[in-house]
Amino acid sequence: MHASPVRGTQTLSRAVVLMKAVAERPLQGWRLTDLAAHCGFDKGSAHRLLAGLVHERLVLQRPSDRHYVPGPLLYELGLGVTPLAAFQQRCAPALARMARLTRGLAFLYLKSGAEFVCAARVGSSSLKGMSVEVGTRRPLVVSAAGVAILLALPAEEQAAVEKANLKQIEPVGAARVAAVRKMLRRSRRHGFGVNLADVVPGINAFGVPLFDAERRPFASISVVGPVAAMPRTRLAEFEAMLRAEAARIQGEAGAPP
């Protein structure tokens, strides 16, 4: 009696896993073999699910290289989430101020389960190794802004997310895991997201969380720039600026429902 709903739910969950992975690489896209391996699916199952997603326009198979990329229906559906769009627009002045004051990049990240999604990027920079664009999705632990959200979670949830995130990045290599652990330790000592060239050489980043009405972190703001422009000697200055802008955003923009 209950077998069909369970199968249907499992199929939906697997399709969502594929869509989230496709959204991680909106420009480069994925080959079928790589996408299936990344998601832990066999190639045949991934192909069947992707065929359905392509049919519904949630995923697009790019004609030029046959890579899978986000489909137009994802964008169209997103247009209906007006509270988030309005919140993003209200954050724009704060991000512009931060980018101008630091001469670096300013970001707005939204919490998405155990991951973050870049909702806004302001500033011009040719930083090598800085690959985060609007729409980029990553585990919380890999960036100062993500760690800012992580450290604001309740202790039990924080521990579970950290464990899952570290396991998720294991395939990247032991060096990356060690770098992320170093950033986590540093951020805990300072009480906010602090990345002193821990993950990408030559790039520093700092982030603080934004809270909803129930004091749960749902987003974060951050600044990123070269070590020479954002030295550790100005750590207190960057923290004060970020917390002031976060307070201003909370007062003026609030949080989306």
Please tell me about this protein's structure:
Strand 6 and strand 7 (203-211) form a beta hairpin. With 257 residues, the protein is an alpha+beta fold. Helices cover 50% and strands 19% of the residues. It has helices at 3-24, 32-39, 43-55, 72-78, 82-102, 144-151, 155-169, 174-190, 235-252; strands at residues 59-61, 68-70, 105-112, 115-122, 137-139, 193-196, 203-211, 217-226. Residues 1-6 have low confidence and may be disordered. Helix 1 crosses helix 3 (43-55), helix 5 (82-102) runs antiparallel to helix 9 and helix 6 packs across helix 8 (174-190). The strands form 2 sheets. The protein has a 6-stranded antiparallel β-sheet. It has a two-stranded antiparallel ribbon with strand order 1-2. The longest helix has 22 residues, at 3-24.
Keywords:
Arc Repressor Mutant, subunit A; 6-stranded antiparallel β-sheet; single chain; Beta-Lactamase; 2 domains; disordered N terminus; two-stranded antiparallel sheet; 9 helices
Name the CATH superfamily assignment of the largest domain: GAF domain
Strand line-up in the sheet with most strands: 5-4-3-8-7-6
CATH class of the largest domain: Alpha Beta
Q: How many β strands by DSSP? A: 8
Mean pLDDT reading: 91
- Content of β-strand: 15-25%
* Count of folded domains: 2
Number of DSSP helices?
A: 9
Radius of gyration: 19 Å
Query: For this entry, what is the oligomeric state of its chains?
Result: single chain
Look up the CATH topology of the largest domain: Beta-Lactamase
**Can you give the helix content as a percent range?**
40-55%
Low-confidence stretches: 1-6
